[in-house]
Design goal:
The complex is a heterodimer. By secondary structure, chain A is of the alpha+beta class. In chain A, 24% of the residues lie in helices and 40% in strands. Chain A is globular. Chain B has a single domain, classed as Winged helix-like DNA-binding domain superfamily/Winged helix DNA-binding domain (Arc Repressor Mutant, subunit A, Orthogonal Bundle). Chain B starts with a helix and ends with a helix. Classes of the chains: A alpha+beta, B alpha+beta.
Chain lengths: 143, 107
C-alpha cells in the first residue's frame, strides 16, 4: 500500500443546446424524462435524496443528490459498489447550465475516480455491442 | 500488454468462446445444455470453452442440482478499457438522447 493521495480523474462533456435552461432542467430532474435519455431511476429533486439508476445491462448505480440550484446546477453521486476494490466506483456527476443567446451551454463533469478505477463501468455503460465489435477487431490482430 | 489483458485477448480470440461470452452478456445466465443447443459444438467442447472463460474471469458458474448455470462477468473486460475514453463516449451518446428528448418536449 502506498500513502500517496489517490489522484482523481474527470470526464467533461460540453454542449451548446438550442433550448432554454428551464427546459433542460426538467429533462435533468423529472424521473420519466431522465429515464428517456439516461436510465430508469427513482430520482427526486431534493438534496440528500438517495436514488438508483438502473442500466439496461443490469447494473445499478447508487446515487445521492448533492446539490440542486434550479436551473443552474445539479450534482449527484454516481457510485457502484463492488466486492473487488479495483472495480469499486465512487464518483460525482455535475451538470452546469449557463444561459446563452441561443439557449443553454451545458457542461457535464464526472469526477472522483482513482486511476485504479479506470476500468470499472466504462465498457458496461457504453454498451457491450459496440465494445465487443471493437474487441473483435483487436483480437483479429492477436496471434 | 499486461498479463491480465493478454489472457483476456487469448481467451476471446477464439470465435466459439467469444460467441458463448457474447450470448451470456446478451441473454443472461444459461445452463450448459442451453448453450450447447446453439453453439454448434458438442457439450464437452462447450464445457471446455466455458472452463477457459472461467479461468480468464469472464464467466462464473453456479451449481443447482445437476445443472451448472453460467453467467458473464462483464467487469472482467475492464482491463481492456480506457476509462476516460469510455465514459466520454457514454456521456456523448446519452447527451445525444438528451437533445433528442428536448426537441420532442413541449416548451
Amino acid at each position: 500500500m502506498t500513502a500517496a493521495e489517490p489522484q482523481t480523474r474527470s470526464v467533461v462533456v460540453e454542449r451548446d443546446i438550442a433550448h432554454p435552461p428551464e427546459k433542460l432542467w426538467r429533462a435533468l430532474t423529472q424521473p420519466h424524462l431522465i429515464a428517456e435519455w439516461l436510465m430508469n431511476n427513482d430520482f427526486q429533486p431534493a438534496v440528500g435524496h438517495r436514488f438508483t439508476l438502473r442500466g439496461e445491462w443490469g447494473g445499478v448505480l447508487d446515487c445521492e443528490v448533492l446539490a440542486l440550484e434550479p436551473p443552474h446546477t445539479l450534482s449527484y453521486s454516481w457510485n457502484h459498489s463492488h466486492e473487488d476494490p479495483a472495480f469499486d466506483l465512487r464518483s460525482v456527476v455535475t451538470f452546469t447550465l449557463t444561459p446563452t443567446d441561443g439557449g443553454t451551454h451545458l457542461r457535464m463533469e464526472q469526477s472522483g475516480f482513482r486511476p485504479t478505477q479506470k476500468q470499472a463501468l466504462g465498457g458496461a455503460l457504453h454498451g457491450w455491442t459496440g465494445f465487443l465489435a471493437r474487441l473483435e477487431q483487436l483480437v483479429a490482430k492477436v496471434d | 500488454m499486461d498479463h491480465a489483458s493478454d489472457i483476456l485477448f487469448r481467451t476471446l480470440a477464439d470465435p466459439t468462446r467469444r460467441a458463448l461470452f457474447e450470448r451470456l452478456c446478451r441473454e443472461g445466465e444459461q445452463t450448459v445444455g442451453a448453450l450447447t443447443a446453439l453453439a454448434g459444438v458438442s457439450q464437452p467442447a462447450v464445457s471446455k470453452h466455458l472452463g477457459l472463460l472461467k479461468q480468464a474471469g469472464l464467466v462464473q458458474d453456479r451449481h443447482e442440482g445437476r445443472q451448472t448455470h453460467y453467467s458473464a462477468r462483464v467487469e472482467a473486460l475492464a482491463p481492456l478499457n480506457d476509462w476516460t475514453r469510455e465514459m466520454g463516449a457514454f456521456w456523448a451518446a446519452r447527451l445525444d438522447r438528451f437533445e433528442d428528448l428536448l426537441n420532442r418536449m413541449d416548451q
